Amino acid sequence: MFSSSILKSVSKPGRYSGGEFGQIIKDKEKVSARFAFCFPDSYEIGMSNLGMRILYGVLNKEDDIWCERVFAPWRDMEAKMRENGLLLTAHESGDEVRKFDFLGFTLQYEMCYTNVLNVLELSGMPLYAADRGEEFPIVIGGGPCAVNPEPLADFFDLFNIGEGEEMLPEIVRLYIEMKKKGATKAEFLREAARTISGVYVPSLYDVTYNEDGTVAAYTPKYPDVPAKVKKRIVEDIDKMYFPEAVVMPYVETVQDRIMLEVFRGCIRGCRFCQAGMIYRPVREKSPETLLRQAECLYKSTGYDEISLTSLSISDYTRLAELTDGLIDWTNEKKVNLSLPSLRIDSFTRELMEKVASVRASSITFAPEAGTQRLRDVINKNVTEEDLMRSASIAFGAGKEQVKLYFMSGLPTETYEDIEGIAVLAKNTIEQYYATPGHSKRNPQVTISVSCFVPKPFTPFQWEAQDTIEVLRDKQEHLKTKITDRKIRYTHHDARVSHIEAVFALGDRRLSKALELARRADFAFDAWDEYFDFDKWMQIFAEAGIDTAFYANRQRSTDEVLPWDVIDVGVTKEFLIREKNRAYAEKTTPSCREACSACGANCLGGKDTCCPNSKK
């Protein structure tokens, strides 16, 4: 644990002090395996992550396993650590991370990859898995970025593909069993890959490349290693572990509220959305389970807000029943109910009335594209009429501010589509004044435009990202079309999106660039104050990597992709069909309207999105 003198010399010492209410302490002499669970970003972000809260509890539920928390130290603390020769420690025990049996990373965002390497370095561990002997922990990766683990493959011993609630304890139990028999790390890794579904061990595969730089093949080194690693899911999430008490941080975090996971997956099939594909099939929790969990969490935390989390909360089939059950006691106790991720086409006055207690004066919708043609291309399945109707409901209830999320650089996008964003914002302003009962104050519409990044396991995984120059030109073009001061315009940095695309679509050859970036002291690239595009391009040049090969190249559908070694359930045939429908400007109905045979039902699951289709 860090000394008081060091804690006093850094910002927000509560990030490092440990000792929070709700932390789990065990006798390390009586456990069989120790697991350091790392969120590779700041404490405030990591402590807000629901997945980390769940897996922390899942592992600690096992009497002979102790899971502790680790976060990436902020740059001021990192400087103090290096200055004083200190190694990174876990929050609960204060023991050095390198002395644990496992070091697990949740990989939520590509721009955190340099933080992963920095954590390894600050722990006193070699970066490359091949250089870490028996004395070092087994390094595991999981989370959404693990569906293309290849850019990080050389640094990790294994990856969890899919949901970890059942898989992670299985891995640790196998380790405990084999450790008692004196097995080596290599023996454990091969046995895990052979016997535990969802385990990907990169060192057990040879990768070959074609002369043009594309991947030729992934070949298992042994016949008992799976050619493709199938994603794991929890079939019945009603019975899945969910924390009914959480660690209470000393400092303010991004999500100081109860997060109630309502269901997993998405029925919609937006063609740009990776989460909507990789979290299939849809599985719902019952209102009875959710109401019990909400009350337990309120009693154990005292938080005054409950956020219902999912990819699209209004698609929960029993939402009215759940919200009514929550309001029965939350109003009395002055607990706010937050319904994020509401879709434009399912926003109702009834829902508006149920969240009226939320103090925020703004509401957010995501049309994603400025014209109906482009919304059909991306399969958004909402119309301008849907937006105006929803905005009118919000304005009539006293809201004065609306945020609209869009993307720039989507496949087939034209400058007319870009101009449509400004038109939609202007029409929203006009809808405000046309709504009876609107506030007497002027409205504000904020449009936030991100840059499209092609992602693995989406119908757009073969697409080329627009160049930085084109994205910037589109951003400036939109700016010239916004003439109303009641419209506020923000956009993402196209340079960050370019680097994100490189790592989202990359392969193992990027490990050299990541190593060089770490040696050049890169970290916290997801934070504006630390991102340096010019230095990144220097690193890629030094590593002999052409970023356009990964980010700005159109791929053929028969090309072997770096993530083809992974099977997330959604078939390539389905993705190709959806890509073709996009170019034909044809939409695909939601999973509840008709089964589109995406393949995800082969994974099983109770009450999946297509209960009547064949699994």
General description of the model:
Helix 13 packs parallel to helix 14 (415-434), helix 14 (415-434) runs parallel beside helix 15 (468-481) and helix 17 packs across helix 18 (533-542). Helix 5 (113-122) links the parallel strand 3 (102-106) and strand 4 (138-142). The strands form 6 sheets. A 6-stranded mixed beta sheet has the order 2-1-3-4-5-6. A 4-stranded parallel beta sheet has the order 15-16-17-18. It is globular and about 75 Å long. By secondary structure, it is of the alpha/beta class. The protein is 33% helix and 14% strand. The longest helix is centred in the last third of the chain and has 20 residues, at 415-434. It has a domain at 4-230: Rossmann fold (3-Layer(aba) Sandwich), CATH 3.40.50. The model is unreliable at 611-615 (pLDDT under 50). It is built from 20 helices and 19 strands.
Give the structure's gist in a few sentences.
This protein is α/β, with parallel strands linked by helices. It is built from 20 helices and 19 strands. It is globular.
Briefly note the structural class of the backbone: alpha/beta
Measured by DSSP, the beta-strand proportion falls in: 5-15%
The CATH architecture of one domain is 3-Layer(aba) Sandwich
Proportion of residues in helical segments: 25-40%
Rg (C-alpha, Å): 24 Å
Residue windows where pLDDT falls under 50 for at least 5 positions: 611-615
Largest sheet: 6 strands, mixed
The averaged pLDDT comes out at: 94
How many runs of DSSP E, i.e. beta strands? 19
CATH topology of one domain: Rossmann fold
Distance between the termini: 51 Å
